[in-house]
Predict the structure.
Amino acid sequence: MSLLSLTQHEAATRSALLEVQRYDIAVDMTGLLEGEVFASTSTITFTCSEPGATTFVDVAMDVSRATLNGADVDVSQAADGRLPLPALAADNVLVVEASTTNTATGEGILRTVDPTDKLVYVWTSLEPDEARRVWACFDQPDLKAPHRFVVTAPSSWVVTSNGAPESIEDAESSDAKVWTYPDTPRLSTYVVVVNAGPFHEVRREHDGYDLGFYCRQSLVPVLERDLDELVTLTRQGLAFFGERFAFPFPQARYDQVFVPNLGGAMENWGCVTYGDGQLFRTPPTHAQRSVRAEFIFHEMAHMWFGDLVTMQWWDDLWLNEAFASWAANWGMAGASEFTDQWATFLAVSKRTAYEMDMSPASHPIRSEVADVSAAMANFDAITYVKGQSVLHQLVAYIGEDAFVEGLRDYFSRFAFSNTRLDDLMDCYARASGRDLSAWTKAWLDEAGADVISLVGDELVVTTTDDQEPRPHHLDIAVFDTSGDQLVAVGRSSHEVTGSRTPVELPAGDLRLVNAGDFTFAAVKPDATSLEQMLTRIDQLTDPLDRALVGATAGQLLLLGDVAPRDVSAALTRALASETSPALVEPFLGQALLVADRWAPAAESPGLLRSLADTVVGLVDLPDARQAALRTLAASASTDAHWSVLDEAAAKATDLDLAWRILVRRSELGDHDEDRVARLLESDPDPDAGMRRLAVLAARPDAEAKEEVWRAFFVDYAVPASRETLVLGSTFWRPGQAELLAPYTHRYLDELHTLKGGLLNQGLTIRSMFPLGAGDASFLAAAEAAADDTGLMAYARNQLRANSFVLRRILQARQL
């Protein structure tokens, strides 16, 4: 079914015309137990400010009947996801009966059959305008209304929605139950939800909240293993945000549902859904736990920023996501065990934003959004990561107390309504006493990353396309390097305005610009500072300072100012003595990336061997052991490396390390199908077939590559999760460039025929770009494809950003 994308003009016209009083939605899921039919009857009560006017209701389904104020509506006119409505009265009741069999692609709804026990699970995920795929509605964020759901589902299923059910009763005419839910608060159409299946459910009462956790039956042991941690994080987040925002989450029920084949998570009011890849099959490392905690805090922050107060139109989508991402790090650092979260954010996440913002895919954080499809084109690292970095800079610029006071004012004024960015900035301006109009324009309306250098006693800011430099509030840390150990001699804060800002600093050969990582800018150190930071990174006592050196090295790779071998050596040196759990895995990941993908073919094996030698020394450290073994499994090349791995695998109580060893051996040409088959048979993970695919993906064999390719692009058999990204990088081994060359160009062809929802398509687009494996011929084709308007805008932007990084990789290999 071809669908029209709602334009901003259409949305504004309809919003001026209508006010929705309520939605009463009856859902029938009984057709999903053994089939693909999902049915709904949507009753919409609304008023019209101009009686006699006409409009349309959004419904991308097969409409069987519709009535407006008791009179039949001609449903044959339904097309492009819209049903035209005849002349409206002042007060209206619209009833639309519809169904869909599009339940296998993840477009608004997904039906999944667990491969281990054949049980069926269903989720809905409705951002940005996917609600129209499951029931009729006015699908735009500023037409908020209470929603009441009555769900008929197979009797063996559990149903979750935005609150606690009022009643659960047997259906009269079938083996089903009827779940009736009370009115939600006034919510936008994209944050309501219905999930169903034979879920395992656990409930906990804490601090006046009724907390629910759900997963599929095959993952019960995993959920039970991590339940205490999930409960603790949820309690900490609700308490922290409730107090800091001076607005506790206003309902007792808060559910978190882990569902199969969801690429990410969705902030449905009171009922968050996560892809169940977050239920790590192997006891998670510190970094995996940190990522999951960030998901929990991010989606929870949306309860206030996005759900309680919602953007009027999608041009402020960035603010929803940037705020939730910033608040997640803020909350984790302030309320959880992950106190060094800002160091982790710098070491892991900011690189993705710098890569995109330095590339031709750069765009302003805020921009005009002509229609909904255009909003999704910018669902990227600039929206999430640069956006939250800019909010972090705003906190530094006006002070945290004023920032929190402004937020409290904002939530108090605008609860359950819609706003524009100006509403929030006015609250911050009142709280801080500062005029933020110029700050807002510079940071949100201009694309690109400033580059800051410390030249003599001046901070020099260079910009993209001769723009005016942004205002920066930043710190500089100075260290004396004359002895065997670094000695901190000063740390000072500076307001940077214009292209040159004089600074007074104490004497010292190592000067860290942007210490504390308060601003978003690439930093070019002076030659002496660069040499000292790379050779003495391990002597910096603050984890955030060490993270800053790693991040600066990554920026300099993008700028072409440092060779991969020097960055790899610095990170390997840092790892030899790194003790912070917040940095061990980020540094391992960055070191592996540089040695494996950035380094030239002649140097890569030696750098990987050096990294593996260092990692062996981390295996006996309890906090680093698991992450070290995983990195060793990705870089092993000597008998000593394999001896450590084989000994660890023999002692392991899980199968994760065994799979990783098979992947590495397969890459090196030692593929044993019998070993793979035995491991697959013994692995209880319902997604264990993906681990077998990873072994095939690494293998330098055309038949194996073809099977993985078909799983991605023909059968759509790769579950959406973070492991999708790992599988993609495993496929594109830089040392297999000749074998992979035809696939690089096939990737560009496949972008025209991708299926599924935005989150799942986005994962495939990112994971299967041949980063580090594509050559100059592919690069030229990819850059040309980025201008192909036959591709969706999101794919074109990702091509531009990834092609930029690939070009930098190819250039760096010449240094």
Notes: The two ends are 51 Å apart (CA to CA). The CA atoms of residues 412 and 536 lie 49 Å apart.
